[in-house]
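Q: Predict the bound structure with flavin mononucleotide.
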Amino acid sequence: MIDLCTDYLGLQLKSPLVVSSSPLSESVENILRLEEAGAAAVVLASIFEEQLALESKALDHDLSRGTESFAESLSYFPAYDDYLQGQDAYLNRLHRAKSRASIPIIASLNGASAGGWVRFAKEIEQAGADALELNTYSLATGFLKTSAMIEEGIVDLVYRVKQSTSIPVAVKLSPQYTSIPHLARQLDDAGADALVLFNRFYQPDFDIENLNVIPRLTLSRPEELLLRLHWVAVLYGHLRAELAVTGGVHSAEDVLKSIMAGAQVAMAASALLKHGTSHLTTMQIDLTRWMEEHEYQSIRQMRGSLSRRSVPDSSAFERGNYIRTLSSYTLRQKDALPRPG
Ligand SMILES: Cc1cc2nc3c(=O)[nH]c(=O)nc-3n(C[C@H](O)[C@H](O)[C@H](O)COP(=O)(O)O)c2cc1C
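A: Predicted complex:
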């Protein structure tokens, strides 16, 4: 009997297959469908700092404090009226999901600056969330802000959220930091219970006819997993915080790679949006079959087996690999340079 169990954020999960924050969890009915299809836990779609601050008495304070991107970002929010009722609706959905589903429900707070809104973490806890994912998505557009200032801001935010709640807190990060290991260590020290690697960077497209910049969300491709595997493999074994992969998990093989890099769980959104909820069942069947064929008894047994500290030649994760990768490329016939003459 194959044991797919894994621990994550103090929770005993039946498998490493977690549904990441997305519209997939926008209704309780869909959460139940995900559970039935094999999800071991679901991360709710986020509630945003901007939504919370709108409702909060802390708004004036936040604005005068100079959260520079805040006022600007408000103007970009769609469904502005919906956001005004955001808090109650969010807590209500969380509460209903908890009372009807038997898998853990992880709430998601999405914000980038430490303001009064972080107190919402307590309300999330009181509504019954098993854990909280804090998405720190932000873009550095200020010319006077150094990378150290930005990282300090994130660490401070995590510290404050941890102070506001006693449920476990996972921190979802973007990959664009100068030193991911250094930031990871600081977040670990600030009390992060897990790091979720990584956010995708959504670049807007240009409409050259109407001179507009338009938001564009494309679903992920499996190749995006490689960036996550690299950093999970580098961090594994060096932190108290657990590691989770999000981004490019499309198949059972991707889940296996994530676990072997050192993750506790592998999260999926795009693959489920593309292929439907039943894709979770396929992934679980394929996962079990692969483990049987390769004589693995448990997920725990394979965790970290391809991490930087476990592989015999760790240069695969270092500069040496860069040189090897470049020189490993051989020109195919059709790419070959034309012969002179
Ligand atoms: C339509 C859509 C909505 C999303 N909404 C959120 C969100 O509210 N909060 C969040 O943290 N991530 C959100 N994400 C990001 C996903 O949780 C996930 O991290 C990302 O899509 C990478 O995983 P994937 O390759 O499995 O899609 C969203 C993704 C999609 C496709």
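A: The chain has 15 helices and 13 strands.
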